[in-house]
Amino acid sequence: MLYSSCENNYGRHWRLMGLWSFNVKLCPLGVSLFLNDLTVVPLTFMLVYQYSASWKFFFIWSLIAEGLIAFAFHPLLSMLSIYKEWTWNNVYSFFIMIVITSLMRAILLRILQIIHTYRAERMNDL
Asked: Which residue in 1, 77, 111, 122 has its CB near the most CB atoms, within 10 A?
């Protein structure tokens, strides 16, 4: 969910700047929130996080997922006239996803470490 929030925030600004647009709107009023922002990409990275126990496997699987999304899924959406890139390149999406997913994993691992430490201290006090 952290990734989805981050992706929606940056994606909305980049769409408003005219870097890309979605031709299909789920809601006729306001900015389109397409399935790419709320389902496909976040769910993919949730699975990558869940099944990657180490940073090494996380990077391997996230690079595979990012490559498929940036170089297969986005072009497919463009071919179907759902997604239009104006001044954007899929390589930008690939590298931005690397940064966002790594940052989100680091934040999540830090939060889990704090929770584990708190629980351990609490059990020692009992």
From this structure: 77
